[in-house]
Design brief:
The complex is a heterodimer of chains A (about 220) and B (about 400). Chain A has about 220 residues and is α/β, with parallel strands linked by helices. Chain A contains eight helices and twelve strands. In chain A, the strands form three sheets. Chain A has a five-stranded parallel β-sheet with strand order 2-1-3-4-5, with helices on both faces. The mean pLDDT of chain A is about 85. The chains are: A alpha/beta (about 220), B alpha+beta (about 400). At the A-B interface, α1 of A face α4, α5 and α8 of B.
Chain lengths: ~220, ~400
């Protein structure tokens, strides 16, 4: 799951990003509205945490612009979670009417931010169940636990994030590029074999080889894994 | 009865009909007395009588007899006329009294109706909802002017409350941001199982920055609140004293940013005011100037006199202020976009405080700037009446 954190207070942006990375998200940062728009047009974010008071293009305008645009690659619209220090009812209504999916007032607990992020990302049709379950695999994002046949798996954060993304779309062939853009942040070098390497190490920790290679298309998590 | 008399409508009615009744009663009494006196003074009959010679003793003799004494007759007629007049007058007075009560009640009600309307609206207006107006219709009379005065007062109150609400919202916004930084970083540091001394030190540094920001903000908020009180000192303060104080306080900060602080020598002008407060205004201006000044440039602090005003000017060689922003830089919490993200930025209250200090001293503050060519802030203060004799 890839997240964009838009926040002009760098100290706060860094802390939110660290907290979300710890939850297994791939997190990018933007410190201004224009920067956020550029990044959101380039990368298919699953979630955007958007501060309202930004220099230049404000958060509400960013939100409206994003909602008005179709993504060029046809990817679904990102979920938008607004973060703001203005907690009045009118402010919240305005934010939600601009197209935000949820609204969190500063100061907030990172735990709550993470829970709301999970809830927002769960809202996609068949991803409605928490924890995720595919065959013998179970993944609880809130507890950061993954099990196979009830046995806990010792996964690195990246392996965990990769498994989570695969489990959110079981049976679909996912290209290396798609995995790279949703599981890794903007600092990943697309020219390295980082996806392939992580898939390999994840496979080694899973019994019964549930991740298939689909020649020419990418990887697929078997429905009956 | 007392409660009944508390109504202006009742009192007006009673006063009106009372006065009318007294006037009418005096008039009637005057008429009555005048008439009765004039009737007594000028008898028409002048002692005349109707006499006739009538036969007596079976017609053998005649005797002159008086049949009707005109005077007595006239007196009786007069007395009866007067009595009738008195009765009719008393009846008319009584009728007049009740009629005037009714008329007075109606007239007082009509006159007082707008006041009832004003009272009603004023009662409905709550402090939180000042958008209602009386909007009294009708001719431009005393009551309309009263209602219009109320309306304009409500307008000013509405503006003041709105500005107060905005200020509180802004202040809470400004305080919540560092709070959010502190809270988030603390939570991150406390829940990190793999925290190192280094990461904890980094979190502590972030938190310290945020606390410093809150401290500056609360200081500035307090300064603003204190300036709202009317009691600003009125001692004589030499301009050069303010300049020297501000320069001393700011020398270290300027040096730390590699900015040269140039202050002209004193010329002995004296203003009245509070020395510490005036110093704060100049320090705030210097703080802004040093913050935007590129390293190696200089910030000038000049002062002098012009047209009976003392002036203090702070000039920098920074990026200047765009013309469209020059009107709003003295607003509370206004900040240039790039200044909001700059580390060590101010509270957004510095220039608002300067303006308030200037106004509290009967002076003014203005900015002259061209984008790219630095900015000059000019603080004008009224000169004190008695100036020291130049040596």
């Amino acid at each position: 799951m890839r997240v964009l954190v838009v926040e002009d207070e760098r100290d706060l942006a860094e802390a939110i990003a660290s907290g979300l990375r710890r939850e297994g998200y791939a997190v990018d940062l933007a410190h201004a509205g224009d920067e956020a728009l550029v990044k959101a047009r380039v990368y298919p974010y699953d979630l955007i945490c958007l501060d309202l008071s930004l220099p230049g293009t404000g958060g509400r305008e960013v939100c409206r612009t994003l909602r008005a645009e179709e993504r060029s690659d046809g990817a679904p619209q990102p979920r938008i979670l607004m973060l703001t220090a203005r907690g009045g009812v009118d402010d919240r209504i305005a934010g939600l009417d601009d197209g935000a999916d949820d609204y969190l007032v500063k100061p907030f607990e990172l735990k709550e931010l993470a829970a709301r992020a999970r809830a927002l990302l769960r809202r996609n049709g068949d991803r409605s169940k928490a924890p995720l379950q595919v065959g013998s695999l179970e993944l609880d994002a809130a507890r950061h636990e993954a099990t196979q046949h009830g046995t806990p798996l010792a996964l690195t954060p990246k392996e965990f994030a990769l498994l989570r993304y695969l489990m959110s779309r079981p049976g679909e062939a996912l290209s290396e590029f798609e995995l790279l853009t949703h599981v890794w942040d903007e600092n990943a070098n697309p020219l390295t074999r980082t996806v392939r390497v992580t898939v390999m190490t994840l496979r080694r920790k899973l019994a019964g080889n549930p991740i298939e290679t689909v020649p020419g298309a990418g990887y697929r998590l078997k429905d009956d894994a | 009865m007392k409660g009944f008399l508390r109504s202006i409508r009742v009192r007006l009615t009673l006063l009106y009909s009372g006065v009318l009744f007294v006037v009418a009663a005096l008039l009637v009494a005057g008429l009555y007395i005048g008439l009765s006196l004039s009737l007594r003074d000028q008898p028409l009959s002048q002692g005349g009588a109707i006499r006739a010679t009538v036969p007596v003793n079976d017609g053998s003799q005649t005797e002159e007899r008086t049949f009707v004494d005109a005077q007595a007759f006239e007196q009786q007629v007069n007395a009866r006329t007067l009595r009738n007049l008195r009765n009719f007058s008393l009846g008319a007075l009584a009728a007049l009294f009740f009629a005037s009560l009714a008329v007075g009640w109606v007239i007082a009600g009509r006159v007082l109706a707008p006041i009832a309307h004003i009272t009603q609206v004023a009662r409905e207006i709550q402090a939180a909802e000042l958008s209602r107006r009386i909007e009294l219709a009708g001719p431009d009379d005393e009551l309309k002017r009263l209602a219009d005065t109320f309306d304009s007062m409500l307008g000013r109150l509405d503006l003041a409350f709105a500005s107060q609400r905005r200020f509180v919202a802004d202040a809470s916004h400004e305080l919540r941001t560092p709070l959010a930084i502190i809270k988030t970083n603390l939570e991150l540091a406390l829940t990190d199982k793999e925290a190192t001394d280094e990461s904890r030190a980094a979190a502590a540094a972030v938190i310290e920055r945020a606390i410093g920001r809150m401290a500056r903000l609360t200081d500035d908020l307090l300064a603003l609140a204190r300036l709202d009180a009317p009691a600003v000192g009125r001692e004589p303060v030499p301009l050069e004293q303010i300049v020297a104080d501000a320069r001393d306080e700011f020398a270290a900060a300027a040096a730390a940013r590699n900015v040269v602080l140039q202050a002209a020598d004193g010329q002995g002008w004296v203003v009245s005011g509070d020395r510490d407060v005036l110093k704060r205004a100049v320090v705030n201006l210097l703080d802004n100037a040093v913050r935007v000044a590129p390293p190696g440039s200089s910030v000038r602090l000049d002062h002098g006199e012009e047209d009976g005003w003392a002036w203090l000017a702070v000039s920098d060689e920074g990026p200047g202020i765009a013309p469209e922003d020059q009107g709003s830089i003295f607003d509370r919490f206004w900040r240039a976009d790039d200044a909001r993200t700059r580390p060590g930025g101010g509270s957004g209250l510095g220039l608002a405080i300067v303006r308030q200090i200037a106004e509290a001293h009967g002076g003014s503050i203005e900015v002259r700037s061209q984008a790219g060519k630095g900015a000059t802030f000019v603080l004008r203060l009224p000169l004190r009446a008695e100036q020291p004799v130049p040596v």
